[in-house]
Each structure stands twice: as C-alpha cells, then as structure tokens.
TrEMBL record:
Molecular functions (GO terms): DNA binding; N-methyltransferase activity
SUPFAM superfamilies: S-adenosyl-L-methionine-dependent methyltransferases (SSF53335)
InterPro entries: DNA_methylase_A-5, SAM-dependent_MTases_sf
Protein name as it appears in the record: DNA methylase adenine-specific domain-containing protein
Boundaries of every DNA methylase adenine-specific domain copy: 209-250
Length: 273
C-alpha cells in the first residue's frame, strides 16, 4: 500500500503487472525494475530508505491493467463508440440553438457541406478520443480535465485546434456535461492506463515508429475497420519509406543529373531549359 498525497485519503494498493503474453520490452522493464528496487539494502538500519526503494517498484493501481497497445486500441474504440452514440443522441434532441447542433451546422458551412449528423458524431468521437490520447502521451504527469486542449502537442496544431473547438461545447463554458458525451470516460481511461508500458509494447512491435502517429491505424481498425479501408488509412512501414526515398534520390541523380538528389533546389522550369 502507498500513502496518497491527501492526508484524508486511505493508502492505495499499488502493483507491478506482467504476464506471459507481455512483449520482450515489457518483460525486460519488469525484470530491471524488480532487480533495481527489490534488492537487499546497503544499510539495513535505514528503514525509511529501504521502504522507499521497495515501494517504488510498485507504481500501478489495480485498475491499471492496460499495458499493451492492442488492449488500449480496443478500449479506446469502445469509448469512442459510446461517445459517437451519445453525440448522435444529443443531436437528435437538441434544438437548432443547441451547442453541439450549432457546431455541427458550422462545420457544414465551413468545411464539409454534405456532412451528416452521424459523420459529425464520428468526427467528434475520434477527435476527442485520439486527441486526448495524444495529449496523455505528451504529458507523463497525466491529464488535467480543466485544460485538456492545451495539452495536445503544439506539433499537431490542427488536432489541437479541432479538439479545442469540440471541447468548447462542454465543460465550464459550454452547456453539455462532459459526462453526458463521455469525455470524462476518455480522461479516466488515460489515467488508468500505463501509457509508458503501452509505448514500450508498441515500440517492441514496431521499432522506430512514433506511437502517437502510427497508433491511429490500430485504433481505427478496432473502432471502424470498414471506414479504415474506405479512407485508405494504412501507414507505410519504415523500410518501405526508406527504399522509396533512396530510389527517388538515386533517380534524380542518375537520370536527371541533379547532383544533390532530393536536396537539389532546381525547379522544373530550370530543368526544362
């Protein structure tokens, strides 16, 4: 058991989880953690140091059972489906002045003229679910419900802005409770998951691939496999990308006479001359 920060709260049971289905990276991490933390103390009389070292080996709450990318993709898909259904329900009962309906109409006017209510609900569900996943991955300390949109990495400004727009209809400034649409379910899912273990698992399966970018394919496969195929969402493996880039670079050098290949600054107009 571990003492919590609040003096009024009871100690929390903490665990270190692993099983025979874990990846090599996860098992290696568990092994190194146990070896480093659960060793005999250098000073047997320093009880506090001993207790701190042993206690630090157990960092997960019992509910933190999600340690693989596969399991997280499944749970995210389940939560996203619930959000989509709830958003559809809200759109059905809201008036034209309802916050979610007004946002839907704005998207129709500015972005997609033939956007259906279900397509909008789908967009909402995916953006909220995956946006908060991206935010959680960039914030090891965890998500803060009052400041979710700002936690999305600045390297993805479109997702950051879109998530901010969607969250605007909920929370303190909106008229829809986060619980009504299921946003808090995503927050809780991210808090209950061991994202570091998930990223290690993902890296063990697909080395050198950014989990925040490439995990979307796994998520969409679980959420809506048919839509994944319709939209052609298939990330090209790193070796294939490398081969394509090197091949184009070589062709530019040998066939077009560009000594710097892809790095050459010559324009098509200059080449035509």
């Amino acid at each position: 058991f571990s003492d919590t920060e609040g003096e009024s709260l009871l100690p929390t049971l903490r665990v270190l989880a692993w099983d025979d289905k874990d990846t090599v990276l996860h098992l290696d991490h568990a092994h190194e953690t146990l070896k480093a933390k659960l060793r005999w103390p250098d000073d047997e009389k320093d009880v506090e140091s001993w207790r701190t070292s042993w206690g630090s080996a157990f960092t997960l709450r019992p509910r933190e059972v999600i340690t693989t990318s596969k399991r997280l993709a499944v749970r995210m898909a389940e939560v996203a489906t619930q959000i989509r259904n709830r958003a559809n329900t809200v759109l059905e009962v809201e008036t034209e002045n309802g916050p979610l309906t007004k946002l839907y109409n704005a998207f129709q006017v500015a972005l997609i003229h033939d956007l259906t209510p279900d397509d909008f609900a789908d967009m909402y569900a995916q953006t909220v679910t995956y946006g908060l996943f991206a935010a959680a991955c960039s914030r090891p300390a965890g998500l803060v419900a009052e400041n979710l949109a700002d936690m999305v990495p600045v390297t993805n400004p479109f997702l950051k802005e879109l998530l901010g727009a969607f969250l605007e209809v909920g929370g303190k400034r909106g008229h829809i409770d986060f619980d009504e649409l299921g946003v808090n379910d995503v927050v809780q899912l991210m808090l209950d998951a061991d994202l570091e273990a998930v990223k290690r698992d993902f890296g063990d399966l697909r080395r050198e691939e950014d989990p925040v970018i490439h995990f979307y394919e796994d998520f969409l496969r679980e959420y809506d496999a048919k839509k994944k195929i319709q939209r052609g969402i298939f990330f090209t493996p790193q070796p294939v990308v490398s081969f394509i880039v090197r091949s184009v670079d070589e062709i530019l050098r040998t066939e077009f006479g560009l000594e710097d290949g892809l790095a050459d600054t010559a324009t098509w107009g200059e080449m035509a001359e």
